């Protein structure tokens, strides 16, 4: 019998890579998509995949209950979210509702099923805020002091998942994923914004690129590697919480320097600073310790930072 997976946020970067991984392993893959006034753009990442989509919304509990009951999934991957941290300052209420209450709706829908569902929650390194352990890393035991509405909502969802695991003996797992990128990343996230902007400058389409804080540091991996971690986490016999990271941290300035250098340019000639891209409260530094998932589940990233940037540059060089 085919295993059945249900992915919320299937049309996003991670949802599309995860769908490809699960289809290759013989799963029947279902996904939830929201109604959008521009349907052409909505399924651009999944339009060639043999997945079954359902209209629903995490905030519409009736739609979630109906879909979960119809699909009867073996595994649920809850990837849907308002995922942009800076935009969460503009839309705090929507962000908290979707990223926290939406998870509660998903958990309740799964709790009502007769079968034992495996549930994966997309938790985030943004939950740590500016907490860093003495050795310079963050891990699941690091105190969570979020610095954004997005981070606050993710902490609530994380705790709800742990609570449902304990209180109802459900198979609920959290993957605390650090930043993960790819050519499919939305171009308002900093990595793809830099790569796309640099290629546009290279091709004479623009003269400068405006960014915000260049001194923040992030631990960037590749989404394709991180969806493999999601699958391993969900299918481990005992449900738990895991940290997924590369263990390398670079500043936004480093990212600019490396990307522009690949294209034979000096970023200092093109980058300008615009306060519109600054955040009311910044998370300054991320570097994750993923030794537990490497040792216990045998996960390790295949992409290096350079191979990831190279793939993103090639992508934009082809389409611009
Ligand atoms: O910002 C700085 C910005 O928007 C990274 C999401 O997937 O990862 C992501 O959240 C850094 C920040 O990602 C610009 O201030 C400078 O320090 O690419 P980002 P994020 O906020 O780290 C976590 C783990 C998630 O869970 C989230 O869903 O880059 N930065 N200048 C800029 N950022 C943006 N977006 N645009 C700029 O112009």
- pLDDT averaged residue by residue: 97
What's the CATH superfamily of the largest domain, by name? NAD(P)-binding Rossmann-like Domain
Helix-residue proportion: 40-55%
The bound ligands are: ligand F7E
Write the element-wise H/E pattern from the N-terminal end onward: EHEHEHEHHEHEEHEEEHEEHEHH
* Spatial strand sequence of the major β-sheet: 3-2-1-4-5-6-11
Q: Which fold name corresponds to the CATH topology of the largest domain?
A: Rossmann fold
Could you give the count of β-strands?
Answer: 13
The CATH class of the largest domain: Alpha Beta
CATH architecture of the largest domain: 3-Layer(aba) Sandwich
What ranges have pLDDT less than 50 throughout 5 or more consecutive residues? none
Instruction: Give the distance, in angstroms, between the N- and C-terminal Cα atoms.
Output: 44 Å
């Amino acid at each position: 019998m085919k295993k059945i997976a249900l992915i919320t946020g299937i049309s996003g970067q991670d949802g599309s890579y995860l769908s490809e991984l699960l289809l290759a392993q013989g799963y029947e893959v279902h996904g939830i998509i929201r109604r959008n006034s521009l349907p052409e753009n909505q399924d651009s990442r999944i339009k060639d995949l043999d997945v079954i989509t359902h209209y629903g919304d995490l905030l519409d509990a009736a739609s979630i209950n109906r879909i979960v009951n119809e699909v009867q999934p073996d595994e649920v991957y809850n990837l849907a979210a308002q995922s942009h941290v800076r935009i969460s300052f503009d839309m705090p209420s929507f962000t908290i509702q979707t990223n926290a209450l939406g998870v509660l709706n998903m958990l309740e829908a799964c709790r009502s099923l007769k079968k034992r569902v495996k549930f994966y929650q997309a938790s985030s390194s943004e939950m740590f805020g500016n907490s860093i352990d003495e050795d310079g890393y963050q891990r699941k035991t690091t105190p969570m002091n979020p610095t954004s509405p997005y981070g606050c909502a993710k902490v609530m969802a994380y705790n709800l998942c742990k609570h449902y695991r304990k209180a109802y003996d459900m198979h609920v797992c959290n993957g605390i994923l650090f930043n993960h990128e790819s050519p499919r990343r939305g171009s308002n996230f900093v990595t793809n914004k830099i790569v796309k902007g640099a290629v546009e400058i290279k091709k004479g389409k623009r003269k400068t690129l405006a960014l915000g804080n260049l001194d923040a540091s992030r631990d960037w991996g590749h989404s394709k590697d991180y969806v493999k971690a999601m699958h391993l986490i969900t299918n481990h016999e005992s449900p738990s919480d895991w940290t997924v990271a590369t263990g390398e941290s670079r500043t936004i300035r480093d990212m600019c320097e490396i990307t522009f250098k690949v294209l034979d340019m000096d970023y200092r000639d093109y980058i300008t600073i615009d306060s519109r891209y600054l955040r009311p409260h910044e998370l300054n530094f991320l570097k994750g310790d993923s030794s537990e998932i490497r040792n216990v589940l045998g996960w390790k990233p295949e992409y290096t930072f350079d191979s990831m940037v190279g793939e993103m540059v090639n992508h934009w060089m082809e389409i611009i």
